Amino acid sequence: MSIQPGDRFKNIVRDAVKQWKSEKDSEAHQIFRSSAGHQARSVIPQTVNPDEETVPGIVHPGSTGVIYCSDRAMANGFSYAAQHEWANLGQGAPEVGPIPGSPARPESISVPMDSLEYAPTTGVKDLRTAVANLYNETFRKGKTSQYTHENVCIVPGGRAGLSRVASVVGDVYCSYQVPDYTAYDQVLAAFRRLVPVPTILDANNKYTMDTERTRKDIQSQGTAVVLMSNPRNPTGQVIKGDALKELVTLGREGTTLILDEFYSWYIYPEEGEEFGQSVSSAEYVEDVNEDSVIIIDGLTKNWRLPGWRVCWVVGPKNLITALSQSGSFLDGGANHPLQLAAIPMLEPSRVKEEKLALQKHFKTKRDHVLGRLSELGLTVKVPPTSTFYIWLDLSTLPSPLNNGLTFFEELLKEKTIVIPGIFFDINPAHRRNLFKSPCHEYVRISFGPPMEDLDMGLDAIARVLNKVKDQGMSGIGEGYKQGTEHPVDDHI
């Protein structure tokens, strides 16, 4: 079944009496706004249960996308005991099991007596050295300036690394782009010394960042920090080659560049290109202790070990000293035994084997999902060249199915989870009318799960579209369950 705008939808459009233009018209949007932390910041107090007494001094920060979506899924019957009955195309995690051509997955770890002690807040020295060596081997061959363990801080997860970095940034303007990784919203809201300055990326330009425009903004506004993911979550686009080289030059012009590079292996070669390539700003850094370039990465995505929570921050030595101090009061450091277990996994020959297997397997899944979406009439305008996400434009669907929140709620009825696009509209004050968001007509679909889960979710999308074709808009946009449970997971 193919859904396209045109004559076949005239009957649907005639049925679509709910031409919603604002939040107050939409049940899905009202449920979102009623969740703690999702009202405009000026509306206080905010509690999970408005009848409960507000805890003095506490303000709900608002949930990230997967927290809210998991919460809503549980209201519709989702549980981890019965998760095999659901297709979770929302969670930002890759499949963790064996894939063709990859090294054996770890099934046990050694726990030496010394590892029962706290690890240093900067991490185990041997692991820090292994990280530095991997960057040098992959991106810095022949360069005079090389990373050492003094340029690496091990952290318990990517968001811990981001929080450590944010905690040591002073009172500055921070440039960021929309859409981008949803946790940036909470970071920019929580660390209030960072004054957020947004730039909206354009689908017509394939969500390309204009480095020259950013440079002019830096000069005219005094922007001191640029924060972004590369490859970019959720659009699946990547800055590489000369464009990345030009971006890195900002780190020599009085601005600090913070790059979230968690998807650096998820690069899909086009015809004539080779598998096994990866991307990092480390390739274009001239002096590892002078260029103000901060890299955040780890085992979570590339090594497909999200449960290990072993990640790192790479940058100038004086940054690492600051991160050690902030880690002493923010998180206390990463898991000691797992840091030791991670060391052999960073051996360059093993990394090459992992990277090749990952790219071939995930490219197959990407092409499969794009093909099935096309068969359903949901052509992806900007196909992903990296990551494991598809940024799906719903604008050709009839109202009210053409917005991310309603599309998400309809799929919950079919036991499938996606992420509404509004969670990637980094909007720390939450004041914008959701219908005016540049991300309102999108959902993010993850092809991280195994193929059978992907097909289960795509079958659910087909059922929703077939229902609209056969029955019109009756029942669409209404009848959503209101109750929620406490969130249990948050990996996006």
From TrEMBL:
Question: Positions of the region Disordered?
Answer: 23-44
Q: Which residues form the signal peptide?
A: none
Asked whether the keyword Transferase is assigned, the reply is yes
Q: Which cofactor does it need?
A: pyridoxal 5'-phosphate
The protein's matches in Gene3D superfamilies, at most eight in alphabetical order, are given as:
Type I PLP-dependent aspartate aminotransferase-like (Major domain) (3.40.640.10)
Q: Does the keyword Ligase apply?
A: no
Superkingdom as given in the UniProt entry = Eukaryota
Q: Look up the record and give one Gene Ontology term from the biological process aspect.
A: amino acid metabolic process
Which UniProt key words apply to this protein?
A: Aminotransferase, Pyridoxal phosphate, Transferase
Q: Which Pfam families match?
A: Aminotran_1_2
In alphabetical order, the GO MF annotations are: pyridoxal phosphate binding; transaminase activity
Which InterPro entries would you find in this protein's record? Answer: Aminotransferase_I/II_large (IPR004839), AspAT/PAT-like (IPR050596), PyrdxlP-dep_Trfase (IPR015424), PyrdxlP-dep_Trfase_major (IPR015421)
Q: Which segments constitute the Aminotransferase class I/classII large domain?
A: 88-461
Family designation:
Belongs to the class-I pyridoxal-phosphate-dependent aminotransferase family.
Q: Which PANTHER family match?
A: ASPARTATE AMINOTRANSFERASE
From the Swiss-Prot or TrEMBL record, give the protein name: Pyridoxal phosphate-dependent transferase
Q: Which organism is it from?
A: Schizophyllum amplum
